[in-house]
Amino acid sequence: MSSSAISRNAQPLGSGATAWGAVFIMATTSFALTTGEFLPPSLLPSMAASLGITQGQAGQAVTATAVAGLLMAPLIGTVAPGLDRRTLLSVLAVAATVSNLAVAVSGSLVLLLAARLLLGAAVGGFWAMSLSVAARVSAPQRVGRALTFVNMGGRSRLWREFRSAYGSGRCSTGERSSSWLLSPHWRSLSP
């Protein structure tokens, strides 16, 4: 991407308006991504049973997601420095969708862990970039609200309670059906 394209993409939104639609989409995508991220703890027994592994081995799905997110969040800017941020957020949401689909069809611990690594990278990258994009599409006096709204999408107590109830309710059908339900959310970000 040329430097003129990068600088053109970096210009302020103009007219002092906040793109609340974009902020809302990032908040709801944050909700979907973190729901996928936080489902396994409530589903470890059913995951372990369906894969024929111990609960400790199934618990590594949580660790894999956390480690990948920890590594990707600070590196996302260097991994894709010239990519348009909306495109990058879309790619990360698609990666999370692919991860959820892979979890839904996984029949082995190796595929499960690989899919959860991909989800962790997508979640970490999305969190790091969505905050900068929210600040970018907001009027200066609304940056705080926009950042709060995007953060609220994935981290508020209300959503954590919903995710816990959702995960507990899905235990009878397992992680796989939960992953199927989370997969189509990426479409809301597509350009």
Q: Supply the number of helical segments.
A: 9
Give a count of the beta strands, DSSP E runs of length 2 or more: 0
CATH H-tier superfamily: MFS general substrate transporter like domains
Mean pLDDT, to the nearest integer, reads 78
The end-to-end span amounts to 18 Å
Order of helices and strands: HHHHHHHHH
- Into how many domains do the coordinates divide? 1
Cα gyration radius (Å) = 17 Å
CATH architectural type: Up-down Bundle
How would a textbook summarize the main sheet? Answer: none
The parts where pLDDT drops under 50 for at least 5 residues are: 1-14, 170-178, 183-191
Coarse structural class: mainly alpha
Assign an overall shape. elongated
* Beta-strand content: under 5%
Q: How much helix is in the residues?
A: over 70%
Name of the level-1 CATH class: Mainly Alpha
CATH fold assignment = Growth Hormone, Chain: A
Give structural notes.
The protein has 191 residues and is an all-alpha fold. It has one domain (19-185): Growth Hormone, Chain: A, CATH 1.20.1250.20. The protein is 77% helix and 0% strand. The chain contains nine helices and no strands. It has helices spanning 3-9, 20-38, 40-51, 55-79, 85-105, 109-136, 143-155, 157-170, 174-182. Helix 2 (20-38) packs parallel to helix 7 (143-155) and helix 4 (55-79) runs parallel beside helix 6 (109-136). The protein is elongated. The protein starts with a helix and ends in a 9-residue tail after the last helix. Mean pLDDT is 78; it is low at 1-14, 170-178 and 183-191.
